[in-house]
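Quick question, first post here. What does this chain look like in 3D?
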Amino acid sequence: MEKILIDTDVILDFLFDRKPFSNEASQILGLCERKKIHGLVTPVMISNVYYILRKTASHEKIIQHLKMLMNFLDIAVIDKKVILEALNSGFQDFEDALQNFSAVVGKEIGIIITRNVRDYKTTSLPVMTPELYLKAIL
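> Answer (accepted):
Ran it through. Tokens below.
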């Protein structure tokens, strides 16, 4: 089963129902839920999603959403090696660097799914938008 790292923007598209992107985000998460693909996120992404949602929803509601996601998404590892790789990388955005090297160092994730493809221009992994990924696999 293909393992993908799902970027924060895709999770937020789904949770905020941000049109026109929420449809593809929902399809990708649905594939993860049905175990057609193996979706992963990082601990940093979960924290960031909580922080962003906290501006518009109660703690209880956010926890409910995150628990729902954790029913079918796994967590990619961020350890010292990942942090050092991110710190020493050419990434302009440290969060993107953490996510990238979490995927690269573990050598199990095959692709990064994001709407911000240009943020990952220095990665060694394939990077696709949700729309292009769905076209490629469906």
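Helices lie at 8-16, 22-33, 43-53, 59-70, 80-87, 94-106, 130-137.
Residues 16 and 22 are 8 Å apart (CA to CA).
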